[in-house]
Amino acid sequence: SNTEKITEVCTNLFVEAVEIRTDKDPDVAPYVKPIKMRYEQVPMAPELKSVHKYLTDCLKSKIAKAKEYGNVTTGGYATVSKGELLKMQRALQGKVMGGEKEIDLFRSISIVAEALKIEHALEMIETQGIVACNMYLEDLLSQSATTKTKAVINLVQDENYKNALHKSRMLLKDNIEHPKMTAMRTWVQDYIAKNKDRKIMLFSHFRDTAAYIEEEINKPDGVRAKLFVGQAKKRGRGLSQKEQKEIIEQFRNDEYNVLVATSVAEA
After folding, report:
1. DSSP per-residue letters across 81-132
2. Is the pLDDT of residue 153 over 90?
């Protein structure tokens, strides 16, 4: 994802030259079908903003604490991106590998680990909605009861985390969902109603969200959706190669008209 990482891989593999191809290159273009793209922006539901603020405040406090120890810099920003946090984490771990053993260095590593977990929760509330966000926050709480990892133990004791978890539980009970879920459900229902002989593939970055989508869009009449995920078992969900082939065949034979998949279906 960045020049530094590419250079590291090239050095380790003794790669002397790198060639990059895009769908516009003449030796690739003949094999790529044209894709029409349309973006639809939906505002975050007001109810979700309170959870978002608790998580943002939590992230800011972690970054501020890490800066106090003098081992990280953020260029003056209160919050940082996931990429910057990962870079920060690698730099801190590099110091340890280099022989530095100061207690504040290890504290910084733990705090950055907390920040990464909160950044992931922010991604959940922004892109996936309250169901996925709550599930992740609940997972952290469950882990804290058995793990020895200080980052998890300390994080679940944070007041902003506690408030975000409490608020997410309330919103879950009130069936508040991300507005793009409503928009997607409406679009799928309208499209299937007008194009009964067409099929749809819906992609989700996260498996839990894909499962939720399958459940939600199967409610309207005419929509026959099926979940398609990888082989790894997560929360009891996982498909063997045989099961994957069966689902693809059923989708091809019109037993299902919507395939809800993770990136495993891109191939």
Report:
1. -HHHHHHHHHHHHHHHHTT---HHHHHHHHHHHHHHHHHHHHHIIIII-HHH
2. yes
